[in-house]
Amino acid sequence: MTHNFPSITRRSVLKASVGLAAASLCPGTVRRALGFESANERPRIGVIGCGVRWDKRVFAADGRYGVGKEFPKFGDIVSVCDVDANRLGRAKDIVQGWLGKVPDSGSDYRKIIDDSQVDVVHISTPDHWHAKIAIEAMRAGKDVYCEKPMTLTIDEGRLLCEACRKTGAVMQVGTQQRSASQFVKAIAMIRDGRLGRLVRVQCGIGGAPVSPEIPVATPPKNFDWDRWLGPAPWVDYRFKGGAPNIIQSWSRTHYEFRWWYEYSGGKLTDWGAHHVDIATWGMDKTDTGPLSVDPVMVEHPVDFQDGYPKVENAYNTATKFNIKAVYQDGVELILRHDTDNGILFEGTEGRIFVNRGKLVGKPVEDLASNPLPEGALETVYKGRELTDHVANFFAAVASRQEPISDVFSHHRALTTCHLAGIAARVGRKIRWDPEKEQVIGDPLAQSLVAREKRQRFEIEM
């Protein structure tokens, strides 16, 4: 398929941006619009967080995994930032290999935010840093590609939506399934009525690991533990080697941060951010939310009291679960650990299952004799030709259009994931007002919608 998206240059962003009404521009957006006349036509990219998701070679020499290598196709990575000096050094070498030039580097992301020559920020930090950095980047007049999940809390999602509206920034969430053909085809089939009326969607997202007791340890000299914690509460650094995981250790940090509610939401937001996003898209619920969320079955590896783990020396996110969200029209969305990874859409006239390897079901087989209408996939993909997720972002940067995985729809999908986590933590069914975005009649559950940030790391709007 030929990809006909606009030429992506710094000047093209200028031309698109200056057409915005001046009254809608914050100072950062004005700086962006006025600052894109340059001899260097390619957008300049700053990378904040150089972990395994960005490029696995920061950890393993032969690692092929990572989304970072897609960005030099569209712009120049001019700066990298990480609080782990070892990873930072490897990131500089990786970028030099891609572009033939050593990027600027540092451990304080604010250097990138304050650099008027940086046009795009790619955020690959742990989840608890996403919102603060993304909001500051947008306020500084930059466009943002942020790895999933977009937020740690529901309140952070509201703040990000507000910042995106006020600044006019383009922000793409790294839920790359939105740009994968089998998922787009599944949505197109639903829109074309191939399943009848949806009644239930089940998201198989797998269980989470447990850990042994992880002892207190001294942070490595190359690692700034205080800055890594950032907005999260201060706790001791913990580490134990020998784990059978990608990072070969149990800890509160690299990669394993996702199994601590302090920094993530466990599988409910790790894989949930992917599959619930597609489920919500298919259900056409991207501007609303459930009325109730019921933790039918949840197991945690440690004991909880009033929504918080009673110990801090072991992983604490849910390991097994079956959590049911119900919407105004009665459609159910279920998150569970015990089925194949993927999404099962169930309708009155058929069902389909989709994951990263397949799209199956009788309605899929029927496409051979009754194909979808011409342009059905493009219509679902916001009226554009399908392309890869990073290309979609840079096309949106050039055209000033909304990317396929926008802040607003992802906030709604991720709110369901966060509500599942809140219900799991308090251990009871909760009711939700999707218009006011508030828990109804449960002060403890409502208190988990937002979290106080550590002093020096508050979010300023």
UniProtKB/TrEMBL annotation:
E.C. code: 1.1.1.18
Uppermost EC category: oxidoreductase
UniProt-listed Pfam families: GFO_IDH_MocA, GFO_IDH_MocA_C2
GO molecular function, one term: nucleotide binding
InterPro entries: Gfo/Idh/MocA-like_OxRdtase_N (IPR000683), Gfo/Idh/MocA_oxidrdct_glycsds (IPR050463), Gfo/Idh/MocA_OxRdtase_bact_C (IPR043906), NAD(P)-bd_dom_sf (IPR036291), TAT_signal (IPR006311)
Gfo/Idh/MocA-like oxidoreductase bacterial type C-terminal domain ranges (all copies): 216-458
Highest rank taxon of the organism: Bacteria
Statement: the UniProt record of this protein carries the keyword Ligase: no
Alphabetically ordered keywords of this record: Oxidoreductase
Start and end residues of each Gfo/Idh/MocA-like oxidoreductase N-terminal domain: 44-174
Keyword Transport (UniProt): no
Listed name of the protein: Inositol 2-dehydrogenase
Species this chain originates from: Lignipirellula cremea
